[in-house]
Amino acid sequence: AVYADLRQINPAIAGEDAGHVLFDHGAVRALFDGNRHLDHVADNLRRTMGEAQIEGTDGVLTLFGNGSVTRRGFGQSNSTEVLPADTWDGFGGDCVH
Questions:
Q1: How far apart are CA 92 and CA 44, in angstroms?
Q2: What is the DSSP string of 85-97?
Q3: What does the pLDDT read at residue 36?
Q4: C-alpha to C-alpha distance for 51 and 70, rounded to whole angstroms
Q5: Contact, 17 vs 7, CB < 8 A?
Q6: Which residues of 38-67 are buried (b: 16+ CB within 10 A; e: fewer)?
Q7: pLDDT at position 93, please?
Q8: What span, in angstroms and rounded, lies between the C-alpha atoms of 37 and 33?
Q9: pLDDT the model gives residue 96
Q10: Would you state the pLDDT for residue 6?
Q11: pLDDT value at position 67?
Q12: Paired residues of 74 in beta bridges
């Protein structure tokens, strides 16, 4: 089952730009909390990756505003970078026209 509470904050776009989506997979649930108007740390704020944290039984993946991704294993203190920061100057949310 899927439940969504979606909002249109920016009236200049056709569609929603914020929302909570709850996914029910039986014994497993997932919550997606997205909002294009929240601040995120990045050297170029036109990079619209935002930030995310995905928690699982074996560890945590963290997406940072610069596009880099780290993984911290369950029970570990240190994280390992699994994807470096985005450095392409051409990216800037152009996929949402």
A1: 8
A2: PP--TT-SSGGG-
A3: 77
A4: 12
A5: yes
A6: eeeebeeeebbbbeeeeeeeebebbbbbbb
A7: 54
A8: 12
A9: 52
A10: 92
A11: 83
A12: none
Q: pLDDT digit of tens for each residue in the chain (97 aa)?
A: 999 999 988 888 787 788 999 999 998 889 988 887 777 777 776 666 678 899 988 999 999 888 889 999 999 999 999 999 877 766 665 555 4
- Residue with tokens 């039986």, as numbered in its chain: 26
Task: Tell me how far apart the alpha carbons of residues 43 and 92 are, in angstroms, rounded to a whole number.
Answer: 12
Task: Tokens for 25, please give them.
Answer: 């997979």
Q: Take residue 53 and report the two structure tokens written for it.
A: 């944290």
Which residue has 């074996």 as its token pair?
58
- Identity (one letter) of the amino acid at 25? H
CB–CB of 58/66 below 8 Å?
no
For residues 39 and 35, what is the distance between their CA atoms, to the nearest angstrom?
9
The single-letter code of the amino acid at 13 is I
Provide the pairing of β-strand 80-83 with 52-55. Answer: unpaired
